Amino acid sequence: MTETYYAGAYWPGRPEPLETYARRAEALFQRLASTDPSLATWYEQARSRESALNSRFSPDALSLQQLLTKAKYQIGDGEISFAAWNGSPDDSSVVNFSCGSPVPAAVDLCVWTPAARGLLSAQRASQVLKAMVGAWEPEWGVVISDEHRDSVTESGDVGTFIGWMTYFSRERGPVPPLPGPVRVEPVEDQGTLVILTPERFTLSRPEHVALAEEVRDQLQRAGLLEPLGAP
Prior knowledge:
The chain has 231 residues and is α+β, with helices and mostly antiparallel strands. Strands 1, 2, 3, 4, 5, 6, 7, 8, 9, 10 and 11 form an eleven-stranded antiparallel sheet that branches. The termini are far apart. The relative contact order is 0.17.
């Protein structure tokens, strides 16, 4: 089985000024650049590779604020949706974020989708998720394969399942003691990151699947796996 992975950070709808989104995006891109050289250069996503490579942008707050004023990134009522590609033929990555929903029950998000499996070491994947946490202050985040997600949840409701790595904000509550080889580490003063295995988690390894189920059960009992924004 070939699994495709992504890292995502999610939070309840949170309208903010456009300049705040730009500052958060700048922080994200700065942190990504320090994670891997392939995440230092960015282009606006386009319909063709050629068009995208002609749309390089500087990921600083002022440039991003100007980009986000484009009509194609405005989705109404102060919401924005933006996607960027790193332009690399070998280590291709896409980052997209949608935020500013005025509906608290809606979900704002930031997602990183790497095409290259070489970027999916535990160190790099955790750094990317931490970069998202530092920039966007989400309630919940995950690094997981699409196949793993689909195997454990029918609804896909964010906040209700765990992945290879799962982030819980402080507001979700404390993470209980978990069995080895699970690693639990703080993310600045914002929350906690749970990493199931030091190697890449995969459904093809029964011991990975069994460990994930054991940890999911403990986190469920601790009240940490609730839909996003649940009281």
